[in-house]
Amino acid sequence: QITTLINHKDKPKRSDKTLQAIQRVGQAVNLAVGRFVTVGEAIANENHELKEEMSVACVEARRAGETIAQLTDVASLDHPESDSHITIFTDKTGVVKAARLLLSSVTKVLVLADRIVIKQIITSRNKVLATMEQLEKVSSFQEFVQIFSQFGNEMVEFAHLTGDRQNDLKDEKKKARMAASRAVLEKCTMMLLTASKTCLRHPDCESARINKDGVFHRMRLALEQVIEIVTDSRPNGENEMAPISIYSGIKEFKNKVEGLRENLYFLSKENLSTMLEVILEHTEDFTDSAYTSHEHREHILELSKQAKMELEQLVSVWMQAQNQKTKDLMEDLEVAILKTCQCMNELKREVHSAATSLAADLLKYHTDHMVLKALKITGVEGNLEAVAEYTCKLSEQKEQLVEMCRLLRHVSGTEPLEITCIHAEDTFQVTGPQIISAAETLALHPSSKIAKENLEVFCEAWESQLSDMSLLLREINDVFEGRRGEKRVYLSLPRPGKHNANLKALKPVKLDTEEQAKIAKLGLELHLLTSEVDSETEKWEDQENEIVQHGQGMSSMAYSMYLFTRGEGLLKTTQDLFHQAEIFATEGTKLASALHALSDQVRDDDKPLLLLEAEKLISMCKQLQATAKASAQGKSATFTKVDACILKTRNVMTLLCQLLPLCCKLLRKNKAGNGCLKPAPPWKEDRIRTGTNARTPERRVETFGIKSLENHVTNMTFLESK
């Protein structure tokens, strides 16, 4: 709304419609500020330590909103420019100043509210820690039952607060770390219950004490990590140094190599050599692992050697090109770049295969949980020798699974999945010894029901983590295949032979290195256009708009076509590419229909331009569809067809980059001219309505209210009281 006012262009003639629209926008801003400030003032009253700062910011915001309303009060003026009344037309700088003050004060309110939420989480954590200290010291069941009941309530409150915070985090890495810490706390709460009860029942048992201490230690670490994420700090000012994975190392290395196309001087050859050395150093995790197959080890060593050779060749041509930029040298450089990148892709594929095949084999082998079952049976029998034998087997299994997690982290593909792998590794490292101490306790007290229950809880945690690993493995494979991750990829790709009987006779063809080199520039242009389209779609307020959705779909398909030019992604053959081009053209035609529908809503003087662009889009999509469906026999003809499809796709994307901002502008213009303002209900009504309908947008008001969470825990019961 503020942007609409600031960007308003002065015109000599102002219609009544324009004056009314400006006044409505001004009133809308003022009313929105009023609602926002009311919530801010409520927060101030509930938090005395920040009351003064919050109140000042609220007063500033309210004053700015009222100023904007006064300056836009122009609808009743027949000749606003000649009137003594100051308006947006006579003092536009006043609106700019008020807008700046408003945005500044609103930001202050938000920052102060955020500080309050952080303080709430820290206070809740401190309460949990204090109660945990009491739980560690209890010596009777009755006292334990009372304190654990209080602990359960506090943990539920902490879970609600941190859950809301996790949803609000924008950084996916922090989100994954928060999810991992909260998962630890959730599982450890039940472990703490049974481990503490076992220790109380058998106070002289050393293995029971070790088991309980392990749970308390892990919970404290998880609580500390939550606070680190929430406050964005590290203990003693340390910087978080996450180990670099092979996947991310290769991605960065390839980006640098491909950057040589644009600039021959932006980095040194030593930088590239160091980057490759780091990647190859990490591959030693695979070649040194006892669990990597001989075949995978040999392939990784071979590809590592080849990568060094390709880089040497690249550096040689690159140095020559710096001294003398001839056409032949630049072509040689392009081939060297492609060969280096192709070698790195093959290395990435090989380590991925090594890690995921090991994971699949281990998870399949351990699905029967034979060792855990044997520990439970021998523990109940009191057979200490057999328990010792099976704990050795469990330790071996733990080492295998920890190694599996380390290797999977290298090929996980995204930072959140890397963090999930690290969390899984920690879980196996910690839970293994805890199962062993719980089994030893049961073997020493075979008739103890609580010791048996305690072992069950830890075994369930192990089984649950194994089950989670199967899901994690599937996600890692999805990212590698381009089905999810950092960039959307269009999934409705018809596979060859599925929708067209004639395709069965066609032999799938891949581009060779030379063809990839020829088409690389075109692919790069397509990549840049997809980024531009994504940037434009993000500017739309209504992400559900049909035009936005078609635009996003087309961008995603164009991106998969760009990946094809690099020999990556879901499109494996030229036939896949041609099918994708057909689907892309169909999506473009649907977008043209949406543009026609939009033309019926806009003003008459805007309609011709929009219809003209829609006709252009239809024509381009028809040409692309005809090209994609045309037959091509032989290698040369097929490559020509690939080139034509990508070229025509690029042209459509170029037009799309022009269409999206045009449509966005027309919709905003239309909204400003025809929008109607509903009076805002009082703040108290909002809060009452929030309680009855959690799905309404007003629910955000409640989250600002900073109220106690006692009502969430009334039905919570953790204990049997025996």
Automatic annotation (TrEMBL):
<keyword id="KW-0963">Cytoplasm</keyword>
<dbReference type="InterPro" id="IPR030045">
    <property type="entry name" value="CTNNAL1"/>
</dbReference>
<protein>
    <recommendedName>
        <fullName>Alpha-catulin</fullName>
    </recommendedName>
</protein>
<dbReference type="InterPro" id="IPR006077">
    <property type="entry name" value="Vinculin/catenin"/>
</dbReference>
<dbReference type="GO" id="GO:0007266">
    <property type="term" value="P:Rho protein signal transduction"/>
</dbReference>
<dbReference type="GO" id="GO:0051015">
    <property type="term" value="F:actin filament binding"/>
</dbReference>
<dbReference type="GO" id="GO:0005737">
    <property type="term" value="C:cytoplasm"/>
</dbReference>
<dbReference type="GO" id="GO:0007155">
    <property type="term" value="P:cell adhesion"/>
</dbReference>
<dbReference type="InterPro" id="IPR036723">
    <property type="entry name" value="Alpha-catenin/vinculin-like_sf"/>
</dbReference>
<dbReference type="Pfam" id="PF01044">
    <property type="entry name" value="Vinculin"/>
</dbReference>
<comment type="similarity">
    <text>Belongs to the vinculin/alpha-catenin family.</text>
</comment>
<dbReference type="GO" id="GO:0045296">
    <property type="term" value="F:cadherin binding"/>
</dbReference>
<dbReference type="InterPro" id="IPR001033">
    <property type="entry name" value="Alpha_catenin"/>
</dbReference>
